[in-house]
Amino acid sequence: AATIDWAAVRADFPLLQRKVHGKPLVYFDSANTSQKPATVIEAVDDFYRRHNANVSRAVHQLGSEATEAYEGARGRLARFINARPDDLVLTSGTTFAINLVAYSWALPRLKAGDAILLTRMEHHANIVPWQLVAERTGARIDVVDLLPDGSLDIDMLHAKMTGAVKLLAVGHVSNVLGTVNPVADICREARRRGITTVVDGSQALPHRPVDVAAIGCDFYALTGHKMCAPTGTGALWARREHLEAMPPFIGGGEMIKEVRLDGGTVFNDPPRKFEAGTPNIAGFVGMGAAVDYLSALDMHNVEAREQELLAHLVEEFAKIEGLRIFGTAPGKAAVVSFAIEGVHSHDLATLLDLEGMAVRSGQHCAHPLLQWLGVSATCRASLAFYNTHDEIEAFIAALRKVRTLLA
Ligand code: PMP
C-alpha cells in the first residue's frame, strides 16, 4: 500500500480540530455519520455561490452548469462502485433506496405464500420496509440467525433459501457488530435459486472497495453521509432489467416524458423515472467531491488504515476487566459495540461526552439484533481513517476514568 500522511489527511477535516466540553474532540461515531473534508464543504459552498440553478430544465448557462455538476456526481459515484451511471438512481439515502425497491419492485410482485428472507443483523431500514410489504401482500418474513461471533449462519441461510423465497435482503457490513457478510457468495447462491437480492451497503462503501458487478446482487443501496458526503444523498444501484420493469414509486416533474390528462402520461427512462422533483443538487455536488476525496486516498488504503486502528482498539479493550465486545467475526470492520459489566451504556456515553469523546449508545436502529444479544443497549465506538492511535489511547484512558466514577 502507498504511504499516506494520515496526519495531513486528518487535517483535511475542519470539525476534528474543535473542542467539546473544553477537551479535544475524539469522534468515534462515524458509523452514525462521518465528518466531511474541506473539499466537500467547499464544493457545496462554491455551488451555491457560483453555479446554483435547477437541473435538467433551464437552457441558461447556470442551468447547464448545475446539470453538469449533478450528473458529474452520478458519473463519479457510478465509477466508484464499478457501475454505469444510468443504472444509478440518486436518492436521499439508503432508507429511500430500500423503500424504492420495496414499493416499486416487491409490492407489485409478492403475494401470499411468498417469503422475504432477512438476517438478524439488519438495520431497521432493511427490516421495516419489508414488513410493510409483507403486510400488504400477505408474504411472510423469515430470518437467518447468527453464530456466536456475530457472523451470519451460512448453513441456515442456505437451508432457508426455499422455493417460496422471492427476495433476500442482507447488509454488506453490520452497523452494530462490524461483521462483513460474504455478499458475493450469498448473491451467487441466491441467483442460482432465482432469489432477488438487495444489499444494504451503508456501512461498506465508506470503508472498503465496493464493486457491485463483482458482488452480483440485484440491488445495492448506499448512503452519502457516512462516506464524507452531505446528508440527504444516496443511491440505489439496480440491474437494468429491474429498472426497466419497475413502475415509478413517486410521481412528479422530471420523471416523465409527456403528461396527458387523458391518461397517456409517458414516463422518462430510468434512472430519471425514479427521480421526481428537484433533487438535492448541492448535496450531490458534495457527494462528487467526497468520491474524488476517497478515490484519491484509494479505498484499499482506507481499509488497511481502519483495520490497523481497529486492532489497536480491540487490543486495549481486552485489557479492561468486565468489558464485553459484541461481534468478533474474523475480518470485521472498525465498528466496536461494547458494554462494561455493571455500567449502563447510556451513563457511559454521557460521561465520555464530558471528556470530549463521541460514541453512540442505545440500540443502533437494530432492535432484533439487540434482542438476540440479550442486552437493552450497547456503547458503540466506530472508527474512520481520520482517527488516530493517540485518540484510541486517550479514549481508553477516559474509559478507565469514567468507569471508576460509575462503579
Ligand atoms: N442501513 C445501515 C446498516 C445503516 O447503518 C444505516 C444508517 N444508520 C442505514 C441503513 C440508513 O441510512 P440512512 O439513514 O442514511 O438512510
From TrEMBL:
A Pfam family reported for this protein in Swiss-Prot or TrEMBL: Aminotran_5
Keywords from the UniProt entry: Pyridoxal phosphate, Transferase
Domain Aminotransferase class V as annotated: residue spans: 26-395
Root EC class: transferase
Name the UniProt record assigns to this protein: Cysteine desulfurase
NCBIfam families given in the database record: sufS
Catalytic activity: (sulfur carrier)-H + L-cysteine = (sulfur carrier)-SH + L-alanine
GO function terms (MF aspect): cysteine desulfurase activity; pyridoxal phosphate binding
Known cofactor(s): pyridoxal 5'-phosphate
Tree of life domain: Bacteria
EC number, UniProt record: 2.8.1.7
Function: Catalyzes the removal of elemental sulfur and selenium atoms from L-cysteine, L-cystine, L-selenocysteine, and L-selenocystine to produce L-alanine.
Example GO biological process: cysteine metabolic process
PROSITE patterns: AA_TRANSFER_CLASS_5 (PS00595)
